[in-house]
Amino acid sequence: MQILGIDIGGSGIKGAIVDTNTGEMLTERFRLETPKPATPVQVAQTVKKLIEHFQWEGQVGCGFPAVIQHGIVRTASNIDKSWIGVNAKELFKEHAGNDFQIVNDADAAGLAEMNFGAGKDQLGVVVTVTVGTGIGSAVFTDGVLLPNSEFGHIIVKDQVGEKYASDATRKREDLKWDKWGKRFNEYLQRLEFLLWPDMIILGGGASKKFDKYETELNTKAIVKPALLQNNAGIIGAACAWRKHHPLGFRPPKV
Ligand code: BGC
Asked: For ligand 1, is residue 129 a contact (CB within 6 Å)?
């Protein structure tokens, strides 16, 4: 199945056409700047432009950095507050004309890693943690996704986890990798205390530098860096259309 996968992020909106059976990107990825302010209509217009770039008339899978229930945006930690309550699935269809599946961005990245990356064929409890501006999580048990887990918001050292240990915090506070690694380890240990995963897969910008802080990590779970890195969000968003994922993911029925 060929699907246009789109990853909506704080600074860029990226897309590519994906073969959802193999996880292969069939085109170059194309990126547009996220509009400022990133209000629903402005973002919908940018999504439309991206679709026009690919001259794509088929189905579109979209990863979005918030809780998404049946196409409706429920939270706005790192996005414009006016998104709360918006039916993104309908809004994007009104603007672009295509049919959409919308999923949380970290769930999308997790789906890509479980299907084609570091979590392929991995049974048991796997948590993928996407570290960027915020921290996103995706929880899988025997390959089945529990959507919208939002473990970036657990409390670590009296702070919201993603404020304490995100990649944006590392940059903002100019933390050395070992110092940040210690913080991130505290975050992972808290996550482990709550979920007891067998494996943790790290995605997002920080996963590319895994060797710089790997030695600071001390969890019972095996920790692995993501394999698909930058493209996981696009590939996984396209996978949201897969009706019968071999390990069980199905898009929610409305
Ligand atoms: C949001 C999540 C999102 C994560 C990564 C968090 O602030 O609450 O929904 O997955 O950032 O973008």
From this structure: no
